[in-house]
Amino acid sequence: MSRYLFHRLWQSAVTLILATIVVFAGVRALPGDPALALAGEDRDPESLRAIREQYGLDDSWPVQFWQFVSHAARGDLGQSIRTGEPVNGMIAGALPVTIELSVLALLVAGVIGIGAGVLAAVQRGRPAEWAANALALLGLSVPNFWLGLMAILYLSVALGLFPASGFVPFFTNPVANLHHLVLPALILGTGLAAVIMRQTRSSMLDALSADYIRTAEAKGLPPRAVIGRHALRNSLIVVVTIVGLQLGALISGAVVTERIFALPGFGKLTVDAVFQRDYPVIQAVVLVTATAYIVINLLVDLLYSVIDPRIRVRGDA
Amino acid sequence: MSAVLEVQDLSVSFRTEDGRISAVDSVSLEVGASEVLAIVGESGCGKSVTAMSLAGLLPRSARVDGSVRLDGVELIGAGKRTLRSIRGREIAYIFQEPMTSLNPVFTVGSQIGEVLRTHLGASRRTARARSVELLKLVGIPSAERRVDDYPHQLSGGMRQRVMIAMAVACDPKVLIADEPTTALDVTIQAGILDVLRGLRERLGTSIVLITHDLGVVADLADRVAVMYAGRVVETAEVHDLFAHPQHPYTTGLLGASPAAGRHADTHRLAEIPGLVPVLSEQPDACTFADRCGQALNTCTASQPQLTRGEHGLACWNPVGVS
Amino acid sequence: MKVTRRILRNPLAIAGLVVLGLAVVLAVFANFLAPHEPTQTALDQAFAPPGTAGHLLGTDDLGRDVVSRIMFGLRASLHVGILAVATSLVIGVPLGLMAGYFRAIDALISRLTDLVLAFPFLILAVGLAAIRGASLGNAAIAIGIAQIPGVIRIVRSETLRLKSLDFVAAAVVEGASDAWVLGRHILPNAASVIIVQATVAIPAAILGEAVLSFLGLGIQPPAPSLGTMLSDAQQFAARAPWAAVMPGLAIMLLTLAFNIVGDSLRDALDPKASRR
After folding, report:
1. Which residue ranges make up each domain of chain B?
2. Nearest-CA residue of chain C relative to A27?
3. Contact C248 A149 (CB under 8 A)
4. Assuming Cys at both sites, which of A79, B41, B106, B218 could form a disulfide with B227, CB separation 3.0 to 4.6 Å?
5. Within a domain: residue C228?
6. How high is the mean pLDDT of chain B?
7. Residue C11 maps to a domain
8. Which residues of B267-301 are buried (b: 16+ CB within 10 A; e: fewer)?
9. pLDDT band at B5 (very low <50, low <70, confident <90, very high)
10. Which chain A residue's Cα is nearest to B100?
11. Regions of chain C short of the pLDDT cut 50
């Protein structure tokens, strides 16, 4: 276990260092003088010099890189060239919205995906399986931002069931907060639910044909225990890894969903920054996303080893 | 002797893409109290299907006809709930693959305890204590520690002992052991057979032993039923069968098996030429006729019925009778 | 040819193929088939509902014909989808083959894969748009790069499987060079999984293009794209819902057709998996 842990930590560290180098190099790959890009509209020689100073643009690349890393490690991600606000503050303000949205979407996707996947596997060859498969195929094929538009058009505007846009912080008003997030979470969760459903179905079918299921049936266990305990537990091990791999899709989806429902989250920050050529923000957003992805996947892998005793406990037989 | 398990005219067929395929045809068997009945035959002869059908463990595509009585209670056609309450409690199973027959994500203790909790309503704590006792009963050393192990931490022989412990947890009337030693090393096989023998002696469990290994049969069985292509072709007390086999298939099987006290490598197996036929193709003939060295015209024209009595036989032209 | 027969026995797969064929025809011959210029505005005909003479699916806020724009949008979608998947295959297949075949560089390539995975495709597109500007080509590159890890993973595991088979071992024993074994024995046998991967990657890339164009990071207006049509239509969706509904349906049908064909292709190539 400790060796596995060490190995995974080491891998993640290497990936994180590489990702930092990519982001650093990306900013240097901006067309023209990075100082000009980082200065934005404000191009008098004085402020250009200040920017060169601040980013150490006149130093050698290794020194610049070290500066970049040590600043980032201290949480100093620079200032927005549009508002002059510190970027870490902007991110700290936007992140909770995106995290809440993503967690809710994951919850929706997990409940629907696992439920439908188990149903499809158990009802093999019956109408329920056919329906679940068809829904999963639709879920994979439908553009979720379009689904969002339709939901706003028909559920929010026409029927007035949900607010079409906007956000209320959870601690201000939990009910209004959830009311605003139900639709975005459902929309964001659709694609992921389809992926989870397909994975759950196929690993449940694998599990249900396993010898240990025959044993469980021979023991006279009720279907609840055979399916819910013996088969599902083994299937979920695979499903958990899939969720880790789908994290990138979830982040991408969150950006679009926030755009549609005008949620003041990480995605809105990102898209706005691109259109305003707010390079310090773009750089920070990319770096934070990559770091989050790497850290969360590390956690998923550790979780995986907790669920699967074959990894947790070394065999001594 | 009154039979604990009585099987009469058991037939099993499967629905497949190519139509219905018969796997077991009118099999009748009897197992007395603390008796060991061995069902032997080549793979594909229907012996495992027979075993699985006894407690309704076959998939939905199977159709089962006939009668299976456990202590006089009819099991064929019984409700799912009834069958569940019998499985693991009155009829218990041991399977061939101890590697895969245990669930990898639960400790062996919880898998044994599950049976006790389901059938006897035992508490977590009593289930655990009883699991330790059961592990001791099947000869697992330091059972108190092993009870918290996961299957992958145990060797194949140990896992099979765990399977047996799980099977006898509720002191079942009948234990069905489907190739219990096939997947194990020869040295470990003997240990498993000792455990089974001990259970029969101490708990009085009746055992149905499914195997293709005549060495195992000679070691453990009281009576033998020889199956071929879904039918029982010969049945007799074990010594009688080994000494006086009458069906050409049985003699072939005995010839094809290394002799008792044998070294598997030193004797060439006398293979029976040909393949086990698909049963549905020849309903009205002796299924062995195509491979039989002494088949008569009758053999391909009509099906011989199994005779009743101590030494049952289904053959038109038995060995040693001229 | 067994594969073709298996697919043709599946009515759903045939429907998928028909829709795909139709989409390809509409996209390729959009110049001839489209009733109007896709970028031609006619303010006096703005917000014409579907069924209006000359405008089968209506017009948008600038009076542009929705049918014509969808046809050209399909062209852009397929263009990006194929370009992106081609990019991912050109880079991913050799890397996957090498990762599976040469133990020494397997770890290196898997670090590289982890690195790419750490940048979700939208973030990649954001970075690329920031550096090189937003365009169809850059959108395709971003999507293609994001799909490389998937290609590597699939080709690598197939290579590992094939490498352990007797005929490959025999070639190695006979002294065939690594390049020969990879190109002559492993690649042709891995072709089927690569094709299946491509058929499921294209619809994903098409969805990706729609998302990027919707956000303004892909195809730039006034060039028609299903994504930009949707983002335009968002402004006036309440007044002209058809302008928002139709392009979305077009994307969905196209990706659905690809996914159905991909699924049935996979099942036909591996009947054991389909019974599952």
Report:
1. 3-90+172-283, 100-171
2. C131
3. yes
4. B41
5. yes
6. 85
7. yes
8. eeeeebeeebbebeeeeebbbbbbbbeebeeebee
9. very high
10. A211
11. 274-276
